[in-house]
Amino acid sequence: MDSLYDDADLYDLVAPRDDEMERFYVETAGGPGRTVLELACGSGRITAPLARSGAEVTGVDISATMLDRARAVLAGSAAELVEADMRELDLGRRFDTVVVAANSLLHLHTREDFVRAFSAVRRHLALGGRLAFDIFVPSPRLLSLRQNERQLLGVFGHPERGEVAIEETIAYDPITQVSRADWYWSTAAAPDFRHTQLEMRQVFPQELPLLLELGGLRLEARYGGFDRSPLTPQSRRQVCVAVAA
Fold first, then answer.
1. pLDDT tens per residue, range 224-234
2. Do 228 and 175 have their domain in common?
């Protein structure tokens, strides 16, 4: 089975640019002379606007394929890219802001994973530094879907393949709080030409401050969107800023 991160072209189909997301992270972390560490930087969609803002950016990702795409996106930029696991990172430097965008923290599945990752973040924060990140608010509707019930995730235009449809099934384990999404990629000529699996931890709003505290961090602000609107029962995201405890 393929990983979602094995093909940067197909990944970018389902993770397009988001102007509001970019604006939030540039306003929170970027600007001339600022130092920014971006964890799980992927193909560079947030790294690039941070670098354009004048910040000194270091991007970290565990996927060599995604870093190859990021290097192409960041060509001509002074941004540094490092292949590493965020749970084990030790660059020996500190940064004004650490960024983990676009649900990337949800690839951490266990309590130990969060402790290690948040402890690494704390090690890399300068005095007065902040961690900025966003994660989903878990959806009871999605998590209650029957395991074999395919739902259309979306239809995307690919420059070579044409229209690519993605269907998904979701299986949720309420004990581990990990949801497994199976994505089936199809074109008119090639049904189910690709099958990828994405396992993501569901972090409920009440437990998030506790996970941060385990790694020596404290939740400073939490919003319901990148526009800094309040978190409400209708919010689909937790957009957060944390500091060293």
1. 999 999 999 99
2. no
